[in-house]
Design a protein that fits this description.
InterPro entries: DUF4272. Pfam families: DUF4272. It comes from Glycomyces sambucus. By secondary structure, the protein is mostly helical. The protein folds into two domains: 8-24 and 156-216, no CATH class; 46-151, no CATH class. It is 52% helix and 2% strand. Strands 1-2 form a two-stranded antiparallel sheet. Helix 2 packs antiparallel against helix 3, helix 2 (46-63) runs antiparallel to helix 6 and helix 9 (159-182) runs antiparallel to helix 10. The radius of gyration is 18 Å and the shape is globular. It starts with 7 loop residues before the first helix and ends in a 14-residue tail after the last strand.
């Protein structure tokens, strides 16, 4: 997939328009784009994004007490163990870690689903849809990874659209961080936890030429 060639200045102007619609002032002009040297990203291969969705879906199932042996068997059959982060392995296989931390990753799962075209918006004022489980592998049957991929044939998001969304959430996260630092209330209707987890997934999803794509647990915000 070719590198996006959108004008970075136009991209930031769209971000400013989106923030303005929320009643949030524009960030300072010197705030850089979230892309090294102004380069815009490409997306990871769809298979990697699908694997990430499957893993986060299992993580959510473990939050709600899916037996660990069933969770690990499903991941093994799906051939996605290579995509697991070490801390995810510990939580899924042994229950190690803060359950609340993994529950919060529901918004990351929602964002990955958006990347796959399964959900139609990433409005920061609207949390994850209750219909999301119906769009993901049905672990009650259980539905296999392959069957789910055959069932969901939606097109992956255009890289230019993802670049715009990443810059929007990057700036929105910056606004939330400034509010926390100054002790001021967050912008009305904005959930900083939702913003942070959506940005995490967007940062993970993009790659650049001649750079090693980071693993899920290596994303730095």
């Amino acid at each position: 997939m070719p590198t996006v060639t959108s004008d970075p200045r136009t991209l930031r102007m769209r971000t400013v328009d989106g923030l303005g619609a929320l009643g949030i002032p524009a960030p300072p002009a010197q705030l850089p784009l979230p892309f090294p040297e102004g380069r815009l990203p490409r997306l990871r291969p769809r298979g990697h994004v699908e694997a990430r969705a499957a893993i986060l879906n299992i993580v959510q199932a473990r939050v709600f007490d899916m037996p660990e042996e069933l969770a690990m068997r499903w991941l093994l059959d799906a051939h996605v163990l290579d995509h697991l982060a070490p801390d995810e392995w510990g939580f899924i296989a042994c229950g190690r870690g803060d359950r609340g931390r993994y529950a919060d990753q529901l918004e990351s799962l929602y964002t990955v689903s958006w990347l796959l075209g399964l959900v139609d918006h990433l409005d920061p004022g609207v949390p994850c849809s209750e219909e999301l489980p119906e769009l993901l592998p049905d672990l009650r049957r259980p539905e296999s990874f392959g069957s789910w991929r055959d069932r969901q044939l939606t097109p992956t998001r255009d890289p230019g659209v993802v670049a715009e969304m990443l810059d929007f959430y990057y700036c929105l996260d910056w606004v939330c961080d400034q509010s926390r630092r100054s002790g001021q209330p967050l912008p009305r209707g904005v959930d900083d936890n939702l913003v942070w987890h959506r940005r995490w997934a967007l940062e993970w999803a993009v790659v650049f030429d001649n750079e090693r794509p980071v693993h899920w647990d290596e994303v730095r915000l």
